[in-house]
Each structure stands twice: as C-alpha cells, then as structure tokens.
Amino acid sequence: MEILEFSELDRATGTTGPSSEPSATRHSVVCLHNSADIQEWAASTASADMEAQSTPVHLIATGVAAFEAIALGARRPALVKSLILGDPEVDPALPGYQELLGDVQAPTLVIAAAPTFDTDISKPQSVAGGIKDGVFVIIDNCEVPAHRSRPHSFNEWATSFINIAEGLHAFTRPEEDGNA
C-alpha cells in the first residue's frame, strides 16, 4: 500500500510538524510552498513523485494543500487510488473549481474538525459533495486541524477508508490481478 501525504508547511518552524500518519508499508511527506503554482505543481513535481511508484497511491492532504491534491486527482486519475482531505481550505469561487471536483475519479474522504456544535462546515462538506464518490466525516469537539488535534480519530477514519479504497480498487480492476 503506497501513501503520499501533503501537509501545510509550518512557517514558524519550516517543518510539517509531528506526523499522525496512517499505517503503511511506505510513507513519504511532500511539503508544499504557497509560492508554487498549483497547476505547475500538479503537472510536474507530484506527478513525477507518484509516477516513480509502481501502483496508484493514496493521497492525504490537509489545509490549503487539499486543493493541490484535488487538482492532481482530477488531472492524473491513473496515479491516485484515493484522496483523504483533512480540513480542506479551498476557495469555491476559483474559476473551474466545481469542474475540477467533478473530474476527480478516486474515492475521496473529507474529514472536518468541528470544535463546537455551530462550527461552519459548509466548505469541507461542499468538497465531499462535489466529488462523485465523496464521503464526509465530522470529528466533533475537535480543534482544527483534526490530524493534529485528534490524530487517533483522524487515523482510524483514514485507515478504514484506505482499506475500503483498496478493496474497491481490487474489485474494479480484476484484469490487473490476472482474474479477468
């Protein structure tokens, strides 16, 4: 099982902070800088990293990095087995944004932290709703970002979703296993 994680860069420390990674046989962390052009990044850097893998990967992205993962999932679907987006910070007003969501083919889990009962979850909910196989989960009484505030809850959801995506991928691609 291959997993790549995209996280926001902590500007104060220059790192992505402590990782709360799901279990995997291999785990890579790619730090994105806000100065990078999203389209260029999706077309080159991440694609090159992922093409080096022997199979499609599960992408985990949080915060503003979620948009880059969505773009990559839409533009290079053969590289992406699933998307897991934690507390995605997206701008629905961007031109082409809704079409981009509609182009994502991989099963997608959107996890949103909800510190209080009246937390506005409309943006992350709209991400899941805009993707064909989008699933939306709320972690109640959890500060943003969920992967740092409640890493065990985040990891349980992510790991369970990855297992489901693995099963779906095997079921929908029997010719790759010689079962066609």
UniProtKB/TrEMBL annotation:
Composition bias type Polar residues, residue spans: 13-26
InterPro entries the UniProt entry points to: AB_hydrolase_fold (IPR029058)
Region (Disordered): 1-26
Ranges in a coiled coil: none
Gene3D superfamilies, per database record: alpha/beta hydrolase (3.40.50.1820)
Keyword list, A-Z: Hydrolase
Keyword Nucleotidyltransferase: no
GO MF annotation list: hydrolase activity
Name of this protein: Alpha/beta hydrolase
Native source species: Paenarthrobacter nitroguajacolicus
